[in-house]
Amino acid sequence: MNVNFFVTCIGDALKSRMSRDSVLLLEQLGCHVHFPEKQCCCGQPAINSGYIRSALPGMKTQIAALEENDDPIISPAGSCTNAIRHYADWLVDDPEWAQRARQVASRMIDLTSFIVNHLGVTDVGARLPGRAVYHPSCSLFRKMGVREEPLALLRQVRGLELLPFNAQETCCGFGGTFSVKMAEISGEMVKEKVGHIMEARPDYLIGADVSCLINIAGRLHREGHDVRVLHIAEVLMSR
Which Pfam families does this entry report, sorted A to Z (predicted)? Predict the structure, then answer.
């Protein structure tokens, strides 16, 4: 199957291993991965901060970049995927671009949903011994309804024990620019999240949205906890 890969800004600039493993995983599962070279930031920081008009040119650039073919567009980040899925809402006064936005949005799929629901795979042959907790990001499970797919994949990882923890679905406090504008509130939220995580005493924290993982990892590091933080793509490529 032919697919496109939308790397996201964080995947491109900060988490290249996550991006690499996402592509390798797709290739391992039989996909031919195309990288639209003109893809750019989804505009989420500006959109979430209320600068919609300023974000419109970037949205149009992104839409045009993802129109190279009609194949699925796979992304390892729920927040960026969700942002693009809502472009048409912001382009409502420009019917031509709104329609193009809807066509692109219909092809956007997060990595775990694509593997489980489109490829029909839950066991990718991964192995990672140890105890782990999974953090469900707000964008992925609240906005996109992706709840069971990451768990279905993680349950098949050999040697990995998935642990529940208190208030698992509570926001980590990142929220993009929220963590900057409301830093004190955000800090208390991630502090509470880490407290619940450490009650489970995991070896790994796993998630499917890198932005949340960066936020939680920062707090874990500041508190001196020896917990390895991994994107699910990195877990699924462990052998």
Answer: CCG (PF02754)
Looking at the fold, whether 131 and 194 belong to one and the same domain comes out as yes
pLDDT tens digits, the chain, 239 residues: what are they?
Answer: 999 999 998 888 888 999 999 999 999 999 999 999 999 999 998 998 889 999 999 999 999 999 999 999 999 998 899 999 999 999 999 999 999 999 999 999 999 999 999 999 999 999 999 999 999 999 898 989 999 999 999 999 999 999 999 999 999 988 777 877 888 898 899 999 999 999 999 999 999 998 899 999 999 999 999 999 999 999 999 99
Is the dihedral angle over the CA atoms 114, 120, 208, 10 positive or is it negative? Answer: negative
Task: Tell me, yes or no, whether 104 and 150 share the same domain.
Answer: no
Q: CA 35, CA 1: separation in Å to the nearest integer? A: 14
Helix runs in the chain, H state only: 9-13, 16-28, 44-48, 52-65, 78-85, 87-90, 95-105, 111-113, 138, 148-154, 178-181, 183-199, 210-222, 232-236
The one-letter amino acid at 49: S
pTM above 0.85, yes or no: yes
Cα distance between residue 179 and residue 49, in whole Å: 12
Judge whether 62 and 39 are in contact, CB under 8 Å.
yes
The domain tally of the chain equals 2
Q: Which residues have CB under 8 Å from 223's CB, separation 6+?
A: 194, 198
Q: 87, 116, 145 — which closes off a domain?
A: 116
What are the phi and psi torsion angles at 229 (to 5°)? -105, 125
Last residue of a domain, one of 116, 148, 172: 116
